[in-house]
Fold these 2 entries.
Entry 1:
Amino acid sequence: MPLYLDPDELRDQAPGPHLDLIGTMAFRAAGAAQRLGVFEALLDGPLPVTELAARTGTDAGALPVLLDALVSFGYLDRLPDRRYAASPMAAVLDRRSPWSYAPALAFWQDLLGELWDGLEETVRTGRPQADFYGWLESRPRTLREFQAMLDGMATGLAPLVAAAAPDPGERLLDVGGGHARYSIAFCQAHPRLTATIVDLPEALRGGRARIERAGLGGRVTAVPGDVARADLGAGHDTALLFNLCHGFDGPGNRALLARVAAALRPGGTVLILEPFADLPEGTPPVAEAFTRAFSLNLAVTQGGRIYSFDEVAGWLAEAGFGRIERHAIDGPSELLVARLPGAERTPETDAERTPESGAERTPETGADAARTRGEDG
Ligand SMILES: C[S@@+](CC[C@H](N)C(=O)[O-])C[C@H]1O[C@@H](n2cnc3c(N)ncnc32)[C@H](O)[C@@H]1O
């Protein structure tokens, strides 16, 4: 939708639900255009309908109906010579950019079309109506789009997270780290670090290739398995649970955090990256609306939701973690840091452990500089 139109002007033209109806149709039409290859064809330059129909294998009578709708929605422009062109808004769908929105559009198109029918039943019963990861594992194309979408988000966030996190020590466990972007960023920032990623078999496919491309095959190991049952190993210095807890219900998270605690050494650290339901002050309305919608999606497809910081901190305390800190990262995603009791680690001892790392915490990059709350547990 051309969201850049003045919302007050839009409201004067139609009631809100009517605008939502158009938005739903626009999203569906954009998804169809993407599946048919319309954007891909037009991103290389404007085309007349006949040529576009030939390239996309579509009907030259029906195609302009879709194209004219997409002009209204802001995705396409109609030129004076009657050719159609991708608008600046459609440029974000160019897959050649690492920031492309194309994987997100394709993934959400499949998900909303197939898994949201059970929404009322979820709210009525409190139970999910789908097995999201089972569904994904049986849909290789959607899984690829999902992983590409996560990878795109992690590309921007990983360096910020690696800089804000305390020194990870020498052994990292990345629980649900399939695409490997975070393990790679931590290993690149800390030359003595080795990492073990545990994720579902299909989710690791792209991660393995990325590890090899980064030249980290000797330091990052990908282990297929269900994190609720797989052997997570023992004696790790740090565990990452990034965007994972929101997919589990309360008992699932308690069990998971107890398993993670058992896989860490005494004094080990867990890092949780998620949006929390109590969003940072000043979160823009679009980010807040998406976070609430995403929480609804988690409820219907996985039996999870976006939890408050205190809920997650409570589960961590039950699992034996303390010194719980909360750090702003970027947008709604925040980093929670918690430690098991045991051998104390300080910036000085960290520096001694990794003298060549070049990634020691400074007051500006480390935990001390970030927003710190909920100092209990
Ligand atoms: C939302 S993604 C987050 C990926 C990555 N940690 C990040 O922050 O970008 C959740 C990841 O956890 C994995 N996952 C979810 N449930 C799992 C389970 N029961 N066992 C193993 N992996 C699981 C998924 O395959 C996926 O790669």
Note: The mean pLDDT is 90.
Entry 2:
Amino acid sequence: MAVTDKSVLYQHGTLSLLVPGLFEGTMTIGELLQHGNSGIGTVQDFNGEMVILDGHAYQVVETGEVHELTAEQSVPFATVHFDDPKVTTHETKLTKADVEQKLLTDYPYKNVFYAVKIRGIFSHMLTRVVQKQEKPYPNLTESTKTQPKFKQENVEGTLIGYYAPELFQGVAVAGYHVHFLSNDHSIGGHVLDYTLAEGDVSIQPFASLQQHFPLEDPAFLKEDFNYAGMSTSINKAEK
Ligand SMILES: [Zn+2]
């Protein structure tokens, strides 16, 4: 029985397990969606960027194409929640930096995880998509050396992702980590930059973080993580 607690942020795997290249899928989409109907992540073999909206998990692959993932496909890392925004405001003409600063200024949530969702028209959207890797998997720095980028102007869609306090760098990406999917699926991926022309900006703070680990994955269990270089590797690949 799924627990639909809207105050819980559920995460499978940690961002840090991607750093040494642990890209094996360790949770199915079917199971993941029991823990949330919205979110972000990546797919088995680091095969693209995942965007979960309204209970559907979409995969944006390196060619830019968007596929809906099936219940049997699996993910090494994903963060999900049940959509229930606490505040939604209608905004116009905001850059990425404007939005990020505004949310931290307008709400008292800098020390907690919160979801950010923006539905609207973006006058500029720039995304990137990671490329599918093959075993033996290279590390995150190697895997993200070349990343296809996608750009569109005046595109309507949904931006979704999370803010994590600095303390959680490694568990997640400290600061903002957001993905995008256009309504017509013509562009999506990990968001590098955008300007919001007009849209609804929502936030949803979480009282709890539920961190789930891939207990059945021998590679994860025996990995000796290099924590000293981890933060740099994460920022290089994910910011
Ligand atoms: Zn991402």
Note: Helices lie at 29-32, 96-106, 140-143, 218-222, 227-238.
